[in-house]
Design a protein that fits this description.
Layout (H helix, E strand, L loop, with lengths): L2 H18 L4 E4 L10 H14 L7 E4 L11 E2 L6 E8 L8 E8 L2 E8 L2
Antiparallel strand pairs: 1-6, 2-4, 3-4, 4-5, 5-6
Length: 118
């Protein structure tokens, strides 16, 4: 993936997160104030959010959001380590991503919102 496609991918996600998100669902309750969302938890929560929307994830995988090693799947927000997104697409597809799942910790809850990209 070249730099231009990476910038495009991030731009689409920013637009989706700002304009295209529906009503996020609570995906975790009773979260402690010092809790930080891990990469594995973010992937698990995003998978569950897709399943809750009726999407079959058996042939899907999360998409890394940058080129470095190790590959990261949870794109964290700038100043907030407890917000970000995970991108998903069908295994073997050449599409950059088909779904975006935003994840955000607010107070003692974690919210998830799965959206199909346009």
């Amino acid at each position: 993936m070249n730099r231009t496609s990476f910038i495009f991918k991030i731009s689409v996600v920013v637009v989706l997160l700002f304009y295209g998100c529906g009503r996020p669902e609570i995906c975790m309750h009773d979260v402690k104030s010092d809790f930080v969302i891990s990469e594995n938890l973010a992937v698990s929560l995003s998978r569950n959010a897709l399943i809750n929307k009726g999407i079959d994830v058996s042939d899907m995988e999360p998409v890394p959001y940058h080129f470095e090693t190790p590959k990261r799947l949870f794109a964290r927000g700038g100043r907030n380590n407890n917000s970000g997104y995970v991108l998903w697409h069908k295994i073997g597809e050449s599409t950059l991503f088909e779904y975006s799942v935003s994840i955000e910790k607010r107070d003692d809850k974690i919210y998830c919102d799965a959206e199909k990209t346009k």
